[in-house]
Task: structure prediction
Amino acid sequence: MAAKREHFGGRTAAILALAGSAIGLGNIWRFPYMVGQTGGAAFIIIYLAACLLLSLPIFLAEAIIGHRTHAGTFGAMEQLAPGTRWKWLGLLTVLSPLIILSYYSVVGGWSIGYLWQSVTAGFHASDIGTVSSAYAKFISSPGLPLLFHTLFLLGCAVIVSAGVKSGIEKFNKITMPLLFVLIVVIMVYSISLPGAAPGVSYLLKPDFSKITPSAVAAAMGQSFFSLSLGVGTILTYASYIRKDENILATGLGTVGFDLLFALIAGFAIMPAVFAAGIEPGAGPGLIFETLPYIFAKMGTSVPWLSAVVAVLFFVTIVFAAFTSAISMYEVGVAYLVEQRGLSRHKATVLIFLGCWILGALCSLSFGPLAETKLFGLSIFSFCDMLTSNFLMTFGGLLFVLFVGWKMDKSVVRDEFTSGGTARFNCAVFDAFWFLLRYVAPIAIVVIFLTNFLA
Ligand code: PHE
Result:
């Protein structure tokens, strides 16, 4: 059975680790481009509501399972519902974060590549077409992206193999405050650019006609992804939180930091986009095409400053991606160590090999394997679609149903209120219970159907 389990040092350490998982490419890359595509301030308002009313209760449901059992996803299900089919949820949520990790590592690798370029050569294109074709050429070449994918995954392996306390906790404790400082510096630079003001008001003045059903579903889906829900990462990290810790406070802290970071990232990117005279709805190419072009363009007025900001920007992305990736990695390691009796070192190596292979296939699907299609999609797009559109929502739905309908209410209340000692938690328990049992499952089904029909 399980070896002696490690714990995070305290509430700050737990929040930093959970926020490390939550804050990632989802905040810096996905959130700003979705804001750009879905109508600026109006999207932000729905997003705030989605985080608090939908994602926070789901987050807490997952955290309650992990915190109650002090076990990884599979072990937790075996403890709370022994010998039932719920063990499949435990297994599913070992696999889905590892699939995400595989392609996430490819994008993490690209970020390392762009960081490398920003340090060595900088960005000098005179028009956006040149930047876009450089990007297309880079991701479709077989060699470099594979090398960077390997480096990224290796970095994760080194951190995870050092353990929960001396690896994951330590890394997040150093990195997370740094990320906040960096993104604020970039925001200040971006807002101070000539022509940035319309970008700021774009984020502040809502146009309510933009609130369509699909914008609402997109906001809910984004809050899901950004808070790492439905794939067992929150459950696993929560299983390392000390017994006497207040789960609601930890959840509020994590959601608060994640929101704050996404907003600052929006203010770091949109004003620069407007300053450079670019359409805000550039889509997924925003950080690898639009931004390098902006850095190149700004470089003509104050070259050294924009070169420095470009480096800081890609440092931010690389480290934000690392703190998220290690949380996915840890889910698999916890399973192999606790359920299969492997040493942490061996488990780390095994996961490295599996994710490296799948990630390599994803990476090559932009070049040599472009013609290999799964359900009409490239390997990369298939893995992305499978996980973010289906497995995350499906896992989230099952976690919510498990806590809301299968677990004993008294047990859930006990976890939520720290055994009845936390007064504020006692006061809001009924609201949580209602959101969990009724609002969350319905909302998840809506997201699921929207993804399915889209
Ligand atoms: N929340 C992370 C991000 O915003 C992504 C993630 C998804 C991390 C699922 C862990 C699990 O980038």
The mean pLDDT is 91. Strands lie at 373-374, 377-378. The radius of gyration is 21 Å.
